[in-house]
UniProtKB/TrEMBL annotation:
The lineage of its organism: Bacteria, Pseudomonadati, Bacteroidota, Flavobacteriia, Flavobacteriales. Belongs to the TACO1 family. It comes from Flavobacterium gawalongense. GO terms for molecular function: DNA binding. This is Probable transcriptional regulatory protein FNW11_06525. One of its GO terms (cellular component) is cytosol. Residues 79-234 form the TACO1/YebC-like second and third domain.
Amino acid sequence: MGRAFEFRKGRKMKRWSAMAKAFTRIGKDIVMAVKEGGPNPDANSRLRAVIQNSKAVNMPKENVERAIKKATDKDTANYKEVLFEGYAPHGIAILVETATDNNNRTVANVRSYFNKCNGTMGTQGSVEFMFDHTCNFRIPANGIDPEELELELIDFGAEEVFEDEDGILIYAPFGSFGTIQKELENRGLEILSSGFERIPQITKKLTEAQAADVEKLIEKIEEDDDVMNVYHTMEE
């Protein structure tokens, strides 16, 4: 198995564990998708992907429809995706993905978390290069051979395909998202969920006490409503 498999195994999608938080994040994704490409999922591939993800976290259909309707209101604030970078204690690189309608508030909050937990906020590009920006898709297994599917999807950008208890996962570079999404749809394969992740190129092993210091910062950051994802180089 490759790095994507190990990364996924370590994280176990824990950032989606809180249902209310997941719904809030999906709602922001819907607003950004609608503002970018309109409210029709058939003509907006990004919105189609978000709706698939809403089903994966059991978000009620009426919530999704309400969010789409709200997003079409010109008075509804748009969210801007902003990336923050820095270091946690013990030299662990941290990447924070946010979606915010008030950048000043988000900058101040994220900086305060780093400061309170003995971390250091970095400048743009200071740690981003340590992570590979990837996209991923989950489809039902349904008797599909992951190795055969990987060979078939290599030409569309796929780099790693593997099966877990919830289906088959496909990983590819960030830029291959649209190409693979279209190919899966053309094949009539159901996309259970999709998204983007940043996989650390190298990880660092810490002692239990050191890891606790880093987890304290990560948990503090993840509690913020503007934060979508937190990635790090600590070995899981």
